[in-house]
């Protein structure tokens, strides 16, 4: 049976993440066994360990953002913040997840895609804050620059009828409004002097 374009893309994303988890986990286990042997931790080994941790954290994030999600799958605050803390460890961009409830994975997927939009527009780093507004909408804000990666990408978030051309590193700008349109919702983009605010 044929899948919709979005479902097919999600299946591909899930498959790639699934296939990468095993070899990265094997490397992690190998490093742990080496440390149990009493071998000194060399700078090279420490670098490999740090890189493996970063790769594992990024895959967990991408699995939620681009993988197949079901409304029946729920994600709680500990799982969400654990993923965000792992990918922001030692990074310039930090994440402040304020909601305390659990949410369907499809909703968290939308927020993670929005966070990727912010990441690509924050060369100086900073903190992206995620809250739930009184009208049960997400509000995501941070010191992003509206001209990065390109002004038309932020404009296209609010107007899916006028899609912008995206590069591979900008695919989140195309996928987020497409998913929200498919789910009957829209994004409001507010560009302020020193930050951008997304509501959906």
Automatic annotation (TrEMBL):
Lineage: superkingdom: Bacteria
Signal peptide: none
TM regions (residue ranges): none
Domain Histidine phosphotransferase ChpT C-terminal: 78-192
Pfam families the record matches: HPTransfase
Entry protein name: Histidine phosphotransferase
The organism of origin for this protein: Pseudooceanicola nanhaiensis
Lineage, top ranks: Bacteria, Pseudomonadati, Pseudomonadota, Alphaproteobacteria, Rhodobacterales
